[in-house]
Amino acid sequence: MPPDAGDRAGAAAHYRALESLYAVAPINRLFQSRIEIAEEGLARIRFTIDDSVSHAAGAAHGTIYFKMMDDAAFYACNSLVTDRFLLTTAFNMMFTKPLRGGEVVAEGRWVSGKRRVFVGEARLIDAEGEEAARGTGTFMRSHIPLSGLAGYRAG
């Protein structure tokens, strides 16, 4: 059964608050990116690959692959949880193509779990629409209330 208008408004406020939380994270001063949570269980992060994130051979370093896929899958899963911050407990990645420059989208999706442990997957899509990496993570409900985090501003 679809949610009523009040539930949709509450969900949208939660998504905007999670986007705000992402935006204020100090790590994102190093990695310029923006997140969008359009619906429950789906998050997209848009970012640009440039020389600042390259390894010695000129392609993007694996840290940016991990960071963006972990964040996308994490926020896709945390979109289902309105009271607690989730924590990454594991993340597995498969690199399929080097990223050398341009716009990239990290798309994260919730796969399973709704109580204590959540499973999410993510993939990186380059400017040509090709997949450059994919990953799967597990995320656990923490004791940290979202409402206690300075960047989380619901409503």
Write the layout of secondary structure elements.
Layout lengths: L4 H20 L8 E7 L2 E8 L12 H17 L5 E12 L6 E11 L4 E9 L5 E15 L10
Antiparallel strand pairs: 1-2, 2-4, 3-6, 4-5, 5-6
Keywords: Hydrolase
InterPro entries: HotDog_dom_sf, PAAI_dom, Thioestr_dom
GO molecular function, one term: acyl-CoA hydrolase activity
Fold and architecture overview:
The chain is α+β, with helices and mostly antiparallel strands. The protein has one domain (5-148): Hotdog Thioesterase (Thiol Ester Dehydrase, Chain A, Roll), CATH 3.10.129. Helices cover 24% and strands 40% of the residues. It has a 6-stranded antiparallel beta sheet. Strand 5 and strand 6 (131-145) form a beta hairpin. The radius of gyration is 16 Å and the shape is globular. It starts with a helix and ends in a 10-residue tail after the last strand. The model is unreliable at 1-5 (pLDDT under 50). Keywords: Hydrolase. Residues 58-132 form the Thioesterase domain.
Question: What is the tally of helical segments?
Answer: 2
Topology as H/E string? HEEHEEEE
Helix content: 10-25%
- Quaternary state of this entry equals single chain
**Shape verdict:** globular
Indicate the low-confidence ranges by residue numbers.
1-5
CATH class: Alpha Beta
Radius of gyration: 16 Å
CATH superfamily: Hotdog Thioesterase
Number of strands: 6
User: Within the CATH hierarchy, at the fold level, what is the topology?
Assistant: Thiol Ester Dehydrase, Chain A
Range of strand content: 35-45%
Global structural class: alpha+beta
Give the mean pLDDT. 93
The assigned CATH architecture is Roll
Write out the strand line-up for the largest beta sheet, numbering strands in chain order: 1-2-4-5-6-3
Distance separating the two termini: 24 Å
InterPro entries: HotDog_dom_sf, PAAI_dom, Thioestr_dom
Pfam families: 4HBT (PF03061)
GO molecular function: acyl-CoA hydrolase activity
Keywords: Hydrolase
